[in-house]
Write a structure and sequence with these properties.
By secondary structure, the chain is α/β, with parallel strands linked by helices. The protein has 9 helices and 8 strands. Strand 4, helix 4 (about 110-125) and strand 5 form a beta-alpha-beta unit. Helix 2 (about 45-55) packs parallel to helix 3 (about 80-85) and helix 8 (about 225-235) packs across helix 9. The protein is globular.
């Protein structure tokens, strides 16, 4: 049986998909993917995400933002452009934003500033946020707790421990898992995924990165492969793939305010 799938995080707006995008979309549809959120990391990719949402209406949706590793290179007026793009048809989320302590592309102080600006844009637009985390779970939680209100959103490609996940859940966020949860050595992450409440669980590919088992290392990753991550989660949670696909897809549609 074909599953109902929603890939909540894919970078179909990067060079890896500059050619053959129609075929990538076709393979996703054939695999049961009924919608994909295309994520911006800077002004150029956010614009491209908007263009793709217009080109594939009702199937591709856009998130617009400046990813923490892109913030240092952003021009003074770039965030104003993101604010403008947030009003475009097909834009259903803000981001990706968040914090990254693995790379040193952007000073952490500037990352905090951009994270705050994205959260305010979420409040202004009533759109959910997409949060990037890499070696930064504790800092993200601290910054979220400093907010007067935490917008709805997603901890994308979650890699933290259960304490971090539980705090994010308590703050109203969803938890999304990418291909890493399928990797052989990811037992700790699978333990976290087993505990996330079903109504807060999402799946993603983070295409073109993080291909899931049994396709690990084969790039580019693509939305059709989200099925492998979904089936892994269903197995470890002891539920059918069909029911979990239905649940995660409805979770995504509800969060992104889609029909």
């Amino acid at each position: 049986m074909t599953l109902r799938l929603f890939d909540t995080h894919a970078h179909l707006n990067v060079d890896a998909f500059a050619e053959g995008l129609d075929e990538t979309v076709s393979r996703a549809r054939d695999a049961g993917v009924e919608a994909i959120m295309v994520i911006g990391i800077d002004v150029a990719t956010s614009r491209r995400a908007c263009d793709l949402a217009a080109e594939y209406p009702g199937f591709l949706y856009a998130a617009v933002g400046i990813q923490p590793n892109s913030a240092a290179e952003a021009d003074v007026g770039d965030f104003a452009i993101i604010e403008e793009l947030a009003g475009y048809p097909g834009v259903r989320a803000i981001g990706e934003t968040g914090l990254d302590c693995y790379w040193d592309d952007t000073p952490i102080e500037l990352q905090h500033v951009y994270f705050d600006r994205h959260m305010q844009l979420c409040r202004d637009t009533s759109l959910p946020m997409v949060i990037h985390m890499r070696d930064s779970g504790d800092l993200i939680v601290e910054q979220l707790k400093r907010q007067s209100s935490v917008p709805p959103g997603i901890m994308h490609s979650f890699t933290g421990d259960w304490e971090c996940a539980k705090t994010c859940l308590d703050l109203g966020l969803h938890i999304s898992f990418a291909g890493m949860v399928t990797f052989k050595k990811s037992d700790d992450l699978r333990d976290v995924a087993r505990q996330v409440p079903a109504d807060r669980l999402l799946v993603e590919t983070d295409s073109p990165y993080l291909s899931p088992e049994p396709l690990r290392g084969k790039r580019p990753n693509e939305p059709a492969r989200v099925e492998h991550t979904l089936r892994c989660l269903a197995k470890l949670r002891g539920v059918s793939a069909e029911s979990l696909a239905e649940t995660t897809t409805e979770n995504a549609r509800r969060l992104f305010q889609l029909p």
